[in-house]
Q: What sequence folds into this?
């Protein structure tokens, strides 16, 4: 069974810890977390199978980070997260190449994993 390498980018340590602990509970994922999107952009390379990233972060917003990550690897699979859903941001993230988006707070961690599983199968 393949072990997927995923990156989670969010400025909230609670979200990073919650998602990291959830995804690392089995043998399916290797998780790297980034609280700083600038460092994430520098570090995320083609070895990552997927990225889960917040839109609203102080150092760099997620849409700008998304654009920079996709410039490095146009095939990168990205899910955007937001607590401030506006149709404009969701549409912009899709237009820029994000495959899915997740609303915070999460309905359930299982719903987050379902979206991740969906994009990994593409």
A:
């Amino acid at each position: 069974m393949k072990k997927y390498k995923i990156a989670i980018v969010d400025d909230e340590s609670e979200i990073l810890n919650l998602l990291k602990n959830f995804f690392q509970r089995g043998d399916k994922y290797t998780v790297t977390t980034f609280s700083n999107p600038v460092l994430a952009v520098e570090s995320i390379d083609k070895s990552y199978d997927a990225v889960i990233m917040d839109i609203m972060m102080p150092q760099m917003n997620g849409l700008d980070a998304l654009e920079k990550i996709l410039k490095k690897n146009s095939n990168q699979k990205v899910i955007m997260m937001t607590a401030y859903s506006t149709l404009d941001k969701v549409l912009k993230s899709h237009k820029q190449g994000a495959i899915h988006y997740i609303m915070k707070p999460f309905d359930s961690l299982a719903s987050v994993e379902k979206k991740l599983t969906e994009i990994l199968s593409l």
Observations:
- The mean pLDDT is 92.
- Helices lie at 13-23, 37-43, 62-72, 87-95, 109-120.
- The beta strands are 4-9, 29-34, 50-54, 78-82, 100-103.
